[in-house]
Amino acid sequence: MRELSDRVAIVVTRAWEIQIEPLREGLAVRGRQVSAEVAAPPLLDRLAAKERARDASRIFPMALDAAGMIQRSVNPIGGAMLTRGIDTAKLLFAALPSQELRGEAATFAASLAALGASAVSQFPRDLFFPVPGTQVSERTTPLPDGAEGTIAVTVSAKVEGGSGLLEASERRILTTIKSSERLSSERWVLLPAS
Question: What residues pair up with 142 in beta bridges, in sequence order?
């Protein structure tokens, strides 16, 4: 979920089918996206359609070390891909009906990219075997205009008692720029195959 102005949000829900297999040292996670649903305000229909059509399966396979931490993805999301995503969002925002909405959306996208690129849209290293409970971290970053922005990340996780394998995890990222706040959240649930 990515919050825009006036508490309007874009909510993307992806379902994955994965297999976890033993390796000589650690585990391999193979998978594919099986569905994507997007809820967005009507003004962002084009962005929603693009996100709905995007197949994010290229994040697999992943390698986990002996402790269950993600070591690598064959196709990591790099800086160039993030930049292309921001540029695409700016083009889509340019189609918004008012100059005020276009300016606010573009400014927010640029600020969020600069402030939260290291936290948003990256899998936590401990995604499959998280630390149970809640952890909070916060950092302040100077912005190009001389102001400061804050990013606060709260991670809550529940694990299966015997194995330590993920049951559910949520990462909430609150970005504050001047008096504006935006919330992003990512939630993961691991269910047995049916």
Answer: 148
pLDDT at 154: 94
Query: Model's pTM, two decimal places?
Result: 0.68
Q: Which domain holds residue 40?
A: 2-189
pLDDT of residue 116: 44
Count of structural domains, the chain: 1
- In Å, what is the CA distance from 65 to each residue of 50, 54, 77, 135, 163? 34, 29, 20, 22, 15
Whether residue 194 is contained in a domain is answered as: no
Strand-by-strand arrangement of the 70-73 sheet: 70-73, 62-64, 26-39, 9-23, 2-3, 180-189, 166-177, 148-159, 133-142
Token readout for 92 is: 């889509």
Which residues are registered as beta bridge partners of 22?
Answer: 27
Measure the CA–CA gap between 167 and 131, rounded to whole angstroms.
11
Q: Mean pLDDT in each 10-residue stretch from start to end of the chain (194 residues)?
A: 72 92 90 94 88 90 90 53 60 68 63 46 82 93 83 94 92 87 90 81
Q: Provide CB contacts within 8 A for 24, sequence distance 6+.
A: none
Terminal Cα-to-Cα distance of the chain (whole angstroms):
27
DSSP bridge pairs for 173: 153, 184
